[in-house]
Amino acid sequence: MSDSDLSWVDYDTRHVWHPYTDINNPTPAFPVKSASGCTIELQTGEILIDGMASWWSAIHGYNHPQLNEAIKNQLESMAHVMFGGLTHRPAVDLAQNLINLTPDHLDYVFLSDSGSVAVEVALKMALQYSSSIDGNSARQKVLTIRGGYHGDTFGAMSVCDPITGMHSLFHSVLPQQIFVDRPETQFDGTWHESDFEQFEKVLSARKHEICAVILEPIVQGAGGMYFYHPTYLKRVREACDRNDVLLIADEIATGFGRTGKLFACEHAGIAPDILCVGKSLTGGYMSLAATLCNERVSSGISSGEPGLFMHGPTFMGNPLACACANASIDLLLKSNWQANVSRIENQLSIGLETMNRHKSVKSTRVLGAIGVVELHRPVDMHSIGTEFIKQGIWVRPFGTLVYVMPPFCINNLELGRLVDGIGAVVSKLH
Ligand code: PMP
């Protein structure tokens, strides 16, 4: 198969599973030739302005010289060695970077391969902590809010939204968790204490069953692109403390500046007991995630039987990925990321607001470098994708949600074309 004849694209359609697709009746994927800066070039010649940052991850854009360099340099000394019994500088530097950057007291780092695995690790930490502390297995459930998304592995699926997640398919094998409604008060809304009543009631009534609360702070991503009020998160932290339950913050999508703060927990001035990061950790270059915890969790686990934390992936602490993550963090901190994110926020707010006049549009919202156009009716993903490509932009909606979270380096002109392209497409929808 040569690259120029494009028969590989046909092979892809017949043999290769893409995310959430029917292998026998797939929606064709658009073949990519290369990606650079804020653009993706298709094999068919179109150059698209990227609105997705490859699902929240490519914050610095594609083919970045400093990230390329970091990987090349690391390759000169080693691509990978096992992390069991061995250690290396890129992983330790990354641990130090993460401990320094994340909210206070998250001083212990577990490196893993993907966001879903980081969530599994967080859930295991909470379960091992709880059985160490209680000396029994009574507290094995996790409390979470509806509308969440935490990944596609079994533990992660069990805490995804029970309706829009995959509960119905895997019900019989999924751990049964406890759900409360998501907060009604949106990020910019007026806070009413009544919005916290259900959470408070359920947590205090069932605390003897619950080892941890897990949530996406401030922004619920794939579960509905919903931005909720920081006071809710503050109240969750207080309630977890009062009821002696751990708080897990899943910042896999929100971490590293996306919401206008380095971590979304900062909007509420709180720190979780366990934190998951991934996606943009490597600037979107390769798969790497981390789960951090505080001393309470780490010493709780150590004090139990067997005292060991029972997880250890083959590619744990992969040096190439860690070197890339260190370079990405360095780039982020040396860049004017806050100014960039607020520039994107302003331009998106003005641009998306105008779309409320189209009859297909239910509402629009923006937070940091995230923009959402919520439609009245679900879209056909492939046909709307083709329309976006005609506009020269890469946007991949789901359900009723057309949303963008572009690389932070997107310039005003590119962002203008992205917004105009979305406007042109949604204006034609019914
Ligand atoms: N948590 C959140 C909040 C996410 O957005 C995602 C990915 N969309 C995950 C976990 C899972 O990460 P991954 O796809 O890397 O397994």
Report how far apart the termini are.
42 Å
Output the number of helix runs.
14
What CATH architecture label of the largest domain applies? 3-Layer(aba) Sandwich
Main beta sheet strand tally, sense and closure: 7 strands, mixed
CATH C-level class of the largest domain: Alpha Beta
Please state the structural category.
alpha/beta
Bound molecules: 4'-deoxy-4'-aminopyridoxal-5'-phosphate
Number of domains: 2
Estimated helix fraction: 25-40%
In the predicted model, the low-confidence regions spanning at least 5 consecutive residues are none
- Total number of beta strands: 16
CATH superfamily of the largest domain: Type I PLP-dependent aspartate aminotransferase-like (Major domain)
Strand order of the largest sheet: 4-12-11-10-7-5-6
- Strand content of the residues, in percent? 15-25%
Q: How much is the average pLDDT?
A: 96
Broad shape: globular
Give, in order, the helices and strands: HEEEHHHEHEHHEHEEEHEEEHHHEEHEEH
Question: Could you characterize the architecture of this molecule?
Answer:
This protein has 430 residues and is an alpha/beta fold. The chain folds into 2 domains: 3-63 and 336-426, Aspartate Aminotransferase, domain 1 (Alpha-Beta Complex), CATH 3.90.1150.10; 69-334, Type I PLP-dependent aspartate aminotransferase-like (Major domain) (Aspartate Aminotransferase, domain 2). The chain is globular, with a radius of gyration of 22 Å. It is built from 14 helices and 16 strands. Helix 4 packs parallel to helix 11 and helix 12 packs parallel to helix 14 (412-427). 4'-deoxy-4'-aminopyridoxal-5'-phosphate binds next to helix 5.
